[in-house]
Structure formats: structure tokens, C-alpha cells
Amino acid sequence: MASTSNAIIQCTSSSSSFEYDVFVSFRGEDTRNSFTAFLFEALKKQGIEAFKDDKDIRKGESIAPELIRAIEGSHVFLVVFSKDYASSTWCLRELAHIWNCFQPSTRHLLPIFYDVDPSQVRKLSGDYEKAFAQHQQSFRFQEKEINTWREVLERVASLSGWDTRNERQPAVIDKIVQQIKSIVGCKFSIPASDNLVGMESHFATLSELICLGPVNDDVRVVGITGMGGIGKSALGQALYERISHQFNSCCYIDDVSKLYKREGRLGVQKELLSQSLNERNLEIRNVSDGTHLAWKRLHNAEALIVLDNVDQDKQLDMFTGGRNDLLRKCLGRGSIIIIISRDQQILKAYGVDDIYQVKLLNDNDALRLFCKKAFKNNYTMSDFEKLTSDLLSHCQGLPLAIEVLGSSLFDKDVFHWRSALVSLKENKSKSIMDVLRISFDQLEDTHKEIFLDIACFFNDEYVEHVKEVLDFRGFNPEYGLQVLVDKSLITIDDDDFIGMHDLLCDLSKSIVREKSPRKPWKWSRLWDVKDFHKVMSDNKVAENVEVIILEEKSDILRTMRFDALSTMSSLKLFYFTNWIKINFSGTLAKFSNELGYFYWEKYPFECLPPSFEPNKLVELILLKSNIKQLWEDIKPLPNLRRLDLSGSKNLIKMPYIGDALYLESLDLEGCIQLEEIGLSIVLSPKLTSLNLRNCKSLIKLPPFGEDLILEELVLEGCQKLRHIDPSIGLLKKLRELNLKNCKNLVSLPNSILGLNSLQDLNLSGCSKLYNTELLYELRDAEQLKKIDIDGAPIHFQSTSSYSRQHQKSVSCLMPSSPIFPCMSKLDLSFCNLVEIPDAIGIMSCLERLDLSGNNFATLPNLKKLSKLVCLKLQHCKQLKSLPELPSRIGFVTDSSYCALRQPGLYIFNCPELVDRERCTDMAFSWMMQLFQVCMHVPPLLLPSLSLSFFVYRNQEITYRCLCSTRWNCSIVTNMELLVQEVKYQGGSIMSMRENE
């Protein structure tokens, strides 16, 4: 790391009185999309708050009030002098106001000379002399004001600053940012909060451990250890938040143990690489591939890796090769790895450089934390001083125990406090668990049940999912969860995930076991495969079991008899994944009629027990099951909301579900033997999603009900489906209709024109569909955003007999009047088109247009497609000229926009293209502005990367990018394609070579 230990910990407050750290004065037309764009991004990356004006603020000649306030509220002024800076009276007035606010004792003013000689600015020569001559000739400004501008320019230009002509821009920007950081001080001190009492002493010591050794040549590995509840995770997270801005690659895995149990070695590796490379959907097939990727992509990265809750040394063996040093060797110089574990032996076995032992809170910090929780302030109320002291003596300085106990006593009277103290004294062991048990005992019965459910099953789960399950269980999740939050028994983070401390989880599980610790069939909850296996193998009556959730990944093959399931008369929730390898035996005579949630992946039986009455069933999910029919008789389903039998290849018949008045989602994807679904299904008044994808035997659909509110209908791959019932026109709420690869579908009903809410229509692969002209009539569907007709019958005609027909079809889709105003993507590739209608040029929302592989010679004007970022014309062998391209690209430039749209102009293999000089000019102009727009986002992922030179008319134009970790790596490939593929047969508009 380039920083020292002091840089990590010592933070100043010198800039705390200013609203902004930096105000940048620049002429927008000169540098907005180049130098200053990169400068702003670099400042932002380092957490430096810079005022960034909107383009619309700079209008007229008077300085806008917003800018005046920003100038007066800024600590540092950066003035970017460019060639035409002085021609802007706005800039000159802005500079004069900056000079008036500049006070060397409290503020800083730093000039930057961008592509201009500093002497020209100081002496008002060259372009600056011409600009002032024009100001005087205009007679719009008083001589006094012009003289003030001259004086200010000379003074500011005489200050020490930077000349960008002598260095690469990234190097200059880095120096500027470092200078500003040294001025404004550290912006990353963690504000005082309830869970950070006493943290500063930890930070001071840790900073020394992290920064020991030759900083630029070493990768530091530091372990943090201590007992449960002492604040290891809080310390690790706070340290990560404080110093992560100084690294170009970061990763924080908050529960390595849980991730390893669920997804194994590969899962931990994938999460580490996904975060470090900032790629959410990273594809890694095996550990060897991940190891290679780490070596390739992280060896130059200055990375911060925090691995929390490691409880087995094998969890750190995430790469092939030598375990103890491979992760260290994969990272670049200055990297830091922090491993948090209760077990020091794991840290020592891994070979950490230092171990930091987190200590218990001292008496003062313990009192501070308790007061924050029990009184919501920093002092003890007089009537509670003695009780506070006695209670704290039982907490032994453990932050978690103090928080939980203090929260449970908030707003309680002295009687409750004394009662809590008596409970602690009566248990002579005075263990931490006894302290935590006090809070549990004070909960109402329903809240105890919610607490136990979360501890056993839902720790680190998405809160909305937990609410659904708790609702199934008959609880009030909104109120119950808030009670637990208020008592510091759980947390809900900013991403809406529920968290519970490991000690509280251990407490909860001990409560479940306490009456019969060695007899799991007597417990209320089963969460461990080994315990479940014992219950099944011993075939014991398990009438107390209410919830079974088995998610832990296990490679051990077990054989189980399932007879014991029939004895679980109180079972309300059953969740069984395919991660557990089991051979089933025995019979399943009955199920609990109390079941509300039933999830069993690869359910082995052919039907549900005949005696099962699903009155309370809310969700039934049997993925990839062996089921042929759910049941034969009519069963009441008054509470069913979701039914998912996807992948059940033996399913031949659906039961009557007309009583399922609250059914919202039905998923039968991949039920390849199902021939019909029954009328009762499409009469469910609450049904919003019906998925019949790849129901290859499905012959027809029943008529849809008039009151159906269906929003999504997926019929993709229903190969025997020939017709759609005309009643589909009654689906006024339908947003998505997917008929992809319905290869025998011959027609669409006219009633489809009544689908005014339709946004997405997929007809690709419908090779026998003949009445596609109906699509033209859909122009009144104002919400329609996407139509996919790839593989429609017109695609399978020969060129001679097809072109006229297809030309007519495309004209139907795009007449002279504007339709489909929301469409962003249009793919008409390899359709044998000989002409493209003019209407394509008025589809103003179009971002991607693929016309490759067609036979047209010319294209309509595309100048109005201001959002167009990708145009594909490759293999258009008759194309003679390029159309007029957008003169200005206007779209939101977030960091993922360009990466997702794969920007580029693809025109290779167009041998008839003439007037190549004009094509070169036009294509180069459009692509350069596309580059500028795409560069105006967080820069490239790879460290020290420079985009390669582009050769154009023997001139070399260099676009370089700053280093960052926040851009998806795919943008590199996309931007290269942008250049590499601007070629056509016999030559190239541009070529690309490696930057030396």
C-alpha cells in the first residue's frame, strides 16, 4: 500500500466546516468529457466530495446562485486552464469569485494547465490575449471588470500547480488527488455508533499490524480472534469501511463457514473472485479455473480481502496448490488479507503474519455501551446506578451480552430490573448464555417462536422471504421482527438481510434441545442432516416436530426410511433440497394436515398420500419430482398461493384446483408428458404467472376466465400447440407472452389485438405461423417494448420468393407513422431484406439495431436515433453506403450501461461499400463520441490499463483510462470489439495495435 499506518487511522476535521471538499472550475466544452470527467471520477473513488455542476446551470452571463454557494462552501479550488478558458466570461467571473473567497490560511487554490502553456495564462498571450481582445471589442463589459479578470488570471496562474503536457493524464490526476487528500484529511473515520464503543484503540493497534514490513513489497496477512460476541465482526467490518477506499480491489465475505457449508470450496472461491473483480455473474466451472483466473487477474491488484467467521482450516483452502501461501501469492504488492476466527490454531496453521486478540470492554466502555442501550443516552439514571453496576458485573465486558441485556431493559421500571438481576444471581454459573437467556425469557410466546425459527433456519436470509415463511407459520412477521430488532436479538442490514449473532444462534438451538438433548425426535425443529437421519433411521414417533429445513450441502450418501414422516402430525413446514444425497426406502402413509409450506426437490414418490388434506397449504414446490399425479380426488386448497412442479417429467395429469382462489403462481416447466392443464387452472382469479415452458406434449389450452389477472404467460417450447384460444384477448393485464419455439403454432387469434398491456411478445422459432400481419395492428399497444420474430416463417423462405413477402412484413411492423415508442432493441438479422422502411429512423428509444446479413443497398437516415449505441451491418454484401448516424449520443452513462449493450459499429464483410473516405470520417466521428460517453463512467477494471492506439489517417489518437475496480471487466472486451470490428472486406476504417 502506498499509505502508512498514520494514513489509515489519523483523520483530520479540517474540512468538516465546508460543504464540499473541492470545487473545480473548468470550461465544459474543452474538458467536460475528457480530463475533468476522469478527475471527478478519481476524486469520487477516494471519497473526496467535489461539487459537480449540471450543464444547464451555466447559462447566461451571471453566475448561478447554486455555483456561488458551492464556491463559498468549498475547501479546495481546482482551476483547469484550457485553451479557450478565457473566452468564457462565465469562467472568468467564476474565477474572480473564487479569488475573493480564497484565503491561504484556510483554503487552497491549485491551478491545472490542460494542453496550454502556463506562460500564456500568466502573460495573457496567445489564445488568452485573443480572448481578452474580443471581450473589449464587444463593449458588453466594463473596463474595470476586464482588468479584474486579468489580475486574477495572472495571480492564479502564478501559483504552484500542474502542467498536463509533460505527463500522462492518469499520472497527473493521481498526483492531484493525493495532494487534495493530504489537504482535506481522511474522510473515512467511522462515526460513533452503538456497536463501535471502544473501537478506536482496536484501530490503532490493527493499523500497526497491517502496515508493518516493507509496505510496497509485501502482502500482509493478519488474523483477528476472540470469543464469540466480543465484536470481531464489527471490528473487521468497520476496518474494511475505513480503509477499503485505498485499494483497487476489495472483498468482504461475512460468513465463510456458512458459505462453505452451502456451496463448498468452489463457492467460497467464486464469491472471493466475484467481489474482488467486481463481476456479479462470474462463471467458474471448477477450482482449477478459479485459481488460474486469480493468478491472471489479481496478481497486480492492490487488494483488501476480509474473510469473516472461518471455523475450519479447510475453508481457506480455496485454490489449488499450496494452501498456506497461494492466496497471498495471487495478490499484488501492498495487499492485505484479514482472517477473522474464534480459533487461533486456524490462523496459525494458515501462517498469518500477526494475530490480534480482541479484548473485553473495560468498565468505562462497558458502561457507555449499556447506557446507550438501556437509557438511549450516555449516562445512568440515578435510580438505576446500583442495579446497572450489578447487572454489568454479570456481562463480564462482553459487548453482545451488554447490548442484549441493555436493550431488554429499555423503558422498563425498577421492578423489571431487579427481576432480571435475581434471575442472574439464581444461576450461580453466571455464564454469558445466562445473560442472553434473560432476553429470550422476556419475550412473548409467539416472539420466542419467531426467534427460534430465525436462529435455526433463517439467519442471513432475505427479510421478505422470512416474512413469507413466518406468515405461513401463522405469526405476525412485521411486528414480531421489529420486537426482535428493538431487543438487539437480530439485525436487518441495508440489503434487507436478517442477521443474528452466533452466540444467540447457539443459545436458540440449545433451547430447542434442552429437554431431550439426545432425542431429536422430541425436538420442535430439525436443521441438521445427522439429526434428521437419526429420526428417520430409528423410526421414532416425532409428533413434536413442527419445522424441518435441511439445506446444508453434504457429499455423504445416506439411506433413509421415510416411515417416520408419517408420525409428524404437527409438521407445518418441510424444506428438503437436493444438496443432500439420500437413497429413500420405506413408505409414506400420510402427511401432517398442518403443513403450510412443502418444498421437496426430487420428491421420490408418485403421488402425495391420499389421506393428506392440504387445507392449510400455502406453497407446494416439488421440483424434478417423480410424481405422476398429485392426488385423485378433489382437495380443498383455500390458502394455496404457489404451485411449482417444474421438471416433473412423469406428471401426466393436473388435479382440479378450482378451490385455489388465492393461487398466484403456477409453474409446470419441463413437465414433458402433460397433455392438458384443465379448465380450473385458468379460472383462478388471482393467478398472475403461468409457466408451461417445454411442456412438449401440451396440445391445447383451455379458455381463459374473464376475470383473470394473468400478467405472464410462458408457452415456450410447447411443440404440439397449434392454436391459442381466442379467450386470450380477455387477459387485459398480460405483460409478457412467450411463444418461442412453438414450432407447430399456425396462427394467432385476432383477439390478441386487445392485449393493451402487452410489453414483451416472443414469436421466435414459430416456423409455421402464417398471420404475422396481425402484429401491425398491435401499434395501439403503447406499452409494447419488445417483439422477437427471429425464426418466423419468413426467415425460412428462399431469397427469390421471400424478399418481397418479408419486405411487406417489415413494413407492417414499421409504417410511416411512429409506433413501438419504447422499443430499445430490434434484431432483423439474416432476414433477406432488400429494403428497410424509413420508419426505423424514428424509433427514438432504439439502442441496439441488428440488420446484419441482409440484401439492402441503402439505409434510411438514422440521425434521430440519439440513444443508438450498437449498429450491426456485417455481411450486408449489397450495402453501398452508410446512413447518416446520430450526431449526438444522449443516454444515462452509468457504469453498467455500455457493458450491457456491447457498444460498437459492425460493418465488416461489406464488399460493395463505396466512398470509403466519407464512411471513415462518419464512422470515426460517431465512435469517438461513443468512446467519450462510455469513458465518462467509472474506468476500466484492469490495473494500469491503457486503451490501445487507434490508427486513423496515419494519426495516433490515444484514449487512456484510470485504474478502478468498479467497472465490469466485460467492458474491456466490448471496447476492443468496438475498434477491432470496424472493418470491411478489402480494408479497414480503423485498426488496433498494442500500446507499447
TrEMBL record:
The keyword Transport does not apply. It comes from the Eukaryota. SMART domains: TIR. The keyword RNA-binding does not apply. One of its GO terms (molecular function) is ADP binding. GO terms for biological process: defense response; signal transduction. Keywords: Leucine-rich repeat, NAD, Plant defense, Repeat. Residues 18-184 form the TIR domain. Transmembrane segments: none annotated. This is TMV resistance protein N. It comes from Glycine soja (Wild soybean).
